[in-house]
Every structure is written in C-alpha cells, then in structure tokens.
Design a protein that fits this description.
Layout lengths: L2 H15 L2 E2 H8 L3 H13 L3 E4 L2 E4 H4 L5 H5 L3 H11 L7 E5 L3 H9 L6 E5 L2 H7 L5 E5 L3 E2 L6 E2 L1 H7 L4 E6 L3 E3 L3 E4 L2 H12 L1 E7 L11 E4 L6 E4 L5 H9 L4 E3 L1
Helix pairs in contact: 1-3, 2-3, 6-7, 7-8
C-alpha cells in the first residue's frame, strides 16, 4: 500500500469510527507506529484530522472547518459521483445557483455546453471555470472573500440574491441532521446560503457521507427547504433513513 492510499484509509477509518489510535492502526495496516505518526502529521497539516494523545480525531467531530484546498483533496471519487448525478437536476434552460464548495465546483466542470443557462455563483474560482463557457451567462456575487472557502459573503453578496429567482440552487453544507437541519461554521456564509435557498424554486443539496449527522454553529436551512439530497454510497443507512423519515428525498451516488 502506497503512503497516499494508507493515509486515505486512515482518514476513512477515523470518519467511520470517530477516532483512530496509533497502535491499532499500526497493527491493522501492518506498519510501524512511527509510520502512522508521520501519516497523522501529514493528515493534520492537510486540515482533515486533529492530533490527540495516542491518535487523532476527524475535524468534523470537533467542529473545525478545514480550508478549501484540504477539503478538495479528500473524497474525490465520491464528490465526482455526486456531481455527475446532480447533472440530471440541471434544467434545459433557465437559471441556477452554484454555491461555493468542492463538490459544486465539480458540478461546474461538468455543466453541458449545449444549454443556454444563467449561472449565479459566489465563488471566484467557479466563476473562472465557467467564464470560458460560451453558452453560459455567469453572474458572480460580490462581497468579502472568505479565506477558508473562497466564497463571497456579506452585503454585496446578499443584496443581489434578494432580487433573484432561479430554477435550482445547488448548495453545499458542513453538516446536516434531523435535529438541526443544515449548518455551517461561519454565520456570514450561512446568511448567503440561506439567501440562495430563498432565491430558488428548488434546492438540491450536494453532501458527501461525512456531512450526515454533523451539526455546526450556524443553521441556514431546515430539512423542509430541501427538494433533494444527493450523497454518496458510503452514507450511513441509519442516518439516511432518519433523514428520509423526516421528509427528505435522498439519492446515493
């Protein structure tokens, strides 16, 4: 097993179980404790694990918000499958919103070139990607750019959204649960997401399995605001069942 594969396996175990121990990982992966400690250090620098005595905990369990580059480097296959499935929700014509995020960015890369669409974004990164598409009318929301997510927030992003009405909003989240709905760590970003949901006829949430069952500081939507949740095949069936029982339509990619 290559180092990158081993580190991805460590991250998967941490997210599935909630915590990993150095000794247990060394035995299970048949490597030395020193190798595991180096792996944990690399994963902590990437912003996806937080070291604790004897092991590590995934940042989602601690409420930390990893930076965009760190989030973009994990769960690549799952995010691509979610994005491909989300393509079926893109209208033949009209307008959509693409929230800033690593999964919505993948959807942006897949948008068809044979449809005339207006695409509203709050991500300069996504706007740059879509700006080369001749068939798209790209509207970039202004405002302050958050360093961790590279999303535009505050009044210059909120004011235009109050005057817009689109067919579908494709949004991301840090957490979704029956108890708290859709949540994210930053209140300013939550306000923009909330405005996106209000500005859309339909709301489609793109969220990999690590987001299910987690809660963060700021709520931006209720479960009733969702028309569809697209997650991946590793989503916990009990959590999916709870969301479906609460009225959420869930599709696993």
């Amino acid at each position: 097993m290559y180092a990158e594969e081993r580190q991805q396996e460590i991250l998967r175990i941490a997210r599935d179980v909630g915590r990993v121990e150095v000794a247990g990982l060394a035995d299970g992966l048949n490597v030395t404790s020193e190798t595991i400690r180096r792996d944990l250090t690399i994963l902590e620098r990437a912003g996806v694990l937080r070291r604790v005595h004897g092991g590590a905990i995934p940042v989602e369990r601690l409420g930390f918000e990893p930076a965009l580059a760190a989030r973009d480097a994990v769960l690549i296959e799952e995010k691509e499958r979610i994005a491909k499935l989300a393509l079926s929700e893109v209208p033949e014509e009209g307008a959509i919103i693409l929230d800033a995020g690593t999964t919505t960015a993948r959807l942006a890369q897949l948008l068809p070139v044979d449809r005339e669409l207006t695409v509203v974004v709050n991500s300069p990164v996504i706007a740059t990607t879509l700006g080369t598409y001749a068939n798209l009318n790209v509207l970039l929301l202004g405002g302050r750019v958050r360093g961790k997510t590279l999303a535009t927030v505050d009044d210059w992003a909120l004011a235009p959204l109050a005057e817009l009405y689109v067919d579908v909003a494709f949004v991301g989240t840090n957490g979704i649960s029956v108890e708290r709905g859709l949540t994210t760590p930053d209140p300013a970003e939550a306000a923009v997401k909330r405005a996106m949901v209000r500005a859309a006829r339909r709301t489609v949430l793109l969220a990999d399995h690590t987001k299910l069952g987690n809660d963060y500081l700021a709520r931006f939507a209720e479960l009733a605001d969702l028309d569809l949740l697209i997650t991946d095949s590793r989503a916990d069936l009990d959590l999916v069942g709870d969301l479906e029982s609460a009225g959420v339509r869930v599709v696993r990619a």
